[in-house]
Amino acid sequence: MPPPTPVLTPDEINRYLDDVFPELNATRRAYVVTDVGEGTAVVTCAAGPESLRPGGTVSGPTLMTLADIAAWVVILAHVGRSALTVTTHLSIDFLRKPEPGLLFGRARLMKLGKRLAVSSVEIGDADGRAPYAIASATYSIPPPLERG
Amino acid sequence: MPPPTPVLTPDEINRYLDDVFPELNATRRAYVVTDVGEGTAVVTCAAGPESLRPGGTVSGPTLMTLADIAAWVVILAHVGRSALTVTTHLSIDFLRKPEPGLLFGRARLMKLGKRLAVSSVEIGDADGRAPYAIASATYSIPPPLERG
Amino acid sequence: MPPPTPVLTPDEINRYLDDVFPELNATRRAYVVTDVGEGTAVVTCAAGPESLRPGGTVSGPTLMTLADIAAWVVILAHVGRSALTVTTHLSIDFLRKPEPGLLFGRARLMKLGKRLAVSSVEIGDADGRAPYAIASATYSIPPPLERG
Amino acid sequence: MPPPTPVLTPDEINRYLDDVFPELNATRRAYVVTDVGEGTAVVTCAAGPESLRPGGTVSGPTLMTLADIAAWVVILAHVGRSALTVTTHLSIDFLRKPEPGLLFGRARLMKLGKRLAVSSVEIGDADGRAPYAIASATYSIPPPLERG
């Protein structure tokens, strides 16, 4: 498998996210695609107060949402706009309590088939050495006829 | 294994959720524990507009959050207040697009050990026949000394 | 969703397993479909000595194999012979050490779509009250043209 | 987190596997630890005929078993002999049909806590570029008192 080549830039994906999920960032302005490469994407998340748990840690759902978005963005970056792509499965292991600060979701495209795509994600801080969580997610890609 | 007996009522759990996660319901007033039984719990979620995706479907993160909360509530209901209980793993399969309306997260306690608890959750509508998603989640139970 | 109706009997499935996976049971004669119902199937496994771990417990891979077979059989029972159906994902939680004796894998069909099917499985003993493991598995169903 | 240092060599682990799981390799002589590094381990598997499926592909359970063994070996290599370490969860995504030949399970230690350890595994061929499967697994580490 030669490394897949992205077809969208981070800016294009950020604009697309604003169009498709206006509520996501209107209320929180939190998830930003910062990098796209061959088979990779990085999404950051500035966890706001509604994401915190007792003790100041970031909530599990915040990490799951970042994992889902990063996993989806790396597919979007390589297949192009296809809003109907649907998550069919997500599995996440929570490894360490996140430190306060910007969260980085680093996604890798593990498979890009005609019908299914699979990504894996590591969520960590800026240097990425001891991840807070690891996840994998599967997406169903609609057949061309249904994509109109 | 005799069926485990709950030690908290839905009202007690709802008050506890308000205390521990004030942001969760201050901004959304969405997750309500409606029933607790022997090894079971039901949490409902009135998905607000920020939960919707194009086409009016409910977002994956909304379903994941409900799964995590319901899975956690069924443990809480049986071990008592223990805010430090930490999710270590969650796996979710998305089966069908949710219909608009109240979501029901029906959780079953599958294991309640000294160190780990595992719950499974079905997310569906009021009648629960064709679930929108199924999930399992694992929680680490802190040792008594650390619980203070 | 009305309950799906099986199209194969346990005997037909057992014969099909012998045809398709001769090695599986030639060497071990272990996995037997004992029941098929509306959206359900039961597969038993007589764990042989090669399945045991120190202390006499049954190995994780034995439980995973039973989970995969039961999850696949419940789909096969409802879609008919389709040897190309491929596992795309399996997630399993190990809850308790199995007691020596026959293992029962009880599978439920959670979704039967045109392209994907999802089953969940509980592995336990004859009475099934305290499961040894719970699993979910996803299968890709080939398009009719490829099934030729 | 500084990179963890292994405390056992591949030879020591292979001998330990033979002692603890005599059946595993007596019948198949298949799983060999070939490399151990800081937070990493490699286990190879020569899939025999009993691992094959129609069309000559390697069975899902063979890949799951390799994933479980590689995930367990990387923990064993870093915590030392501790036969009671128990798998609590395993999640695997099947990405591509394996080619005939030696399978490589490349495991990374993602977390090594006092009570839980988590590894991730990629299963592929010798060059490892397009993995056949990715997995994560969680293990419960018994408290020192129970280890005798």
Write the layout of secondary structure elements.
The structure is a homotetramer of 148-residue chains.
Chain A lengths: L9 H11 L1 H7 L2 E7 L2 E6 L14 H20 L6 E9 L8 E10 L3 E9 L8 E8 L3 H4 L1
Antiparallel strand pairs in A: 1-2, 2-4, 3-6, 4-5, 5-6
Helix pairs in contact in A: 1-2
Q: Residue-averaged pLDDT of chain A, rounded?
A: 85
Overall strand count of chain A: 6
Biggest interface, and residues per chain? A-B, 25 and 25 residues
Helix content of chain A: 25-40%
In what order do the strands lie side by side in the largest sheet of chain A? 1-2-4-5-6-3
CATH architecture of chain A: Roll
CATH homology superfamily of chain A: Hotdog Thioesterase
| Biggest sheet character of chain A | 6 strands, antiparallel
Query: Class of chain A, according to the CATH hierarchy?
Result: Alpha Beta
In percent, how much strand structure appears in the residues of chain A?
A: 25-35%
- Assembly annotation: homotetramer
Shape of chain A: globular
User: What is the N-to-C order of secondary-structure elements of chain A (H for helix, E for strand)?
Assistant: HHEEHEEEEH
The domain tally of chain A reads 1
CATH topology of chain A: Thiol Ester Dehydrase, Chain A
Q: What are the segments of chain A in which pLDDT stays under 50 over at least 5 consecutive residues? A: none
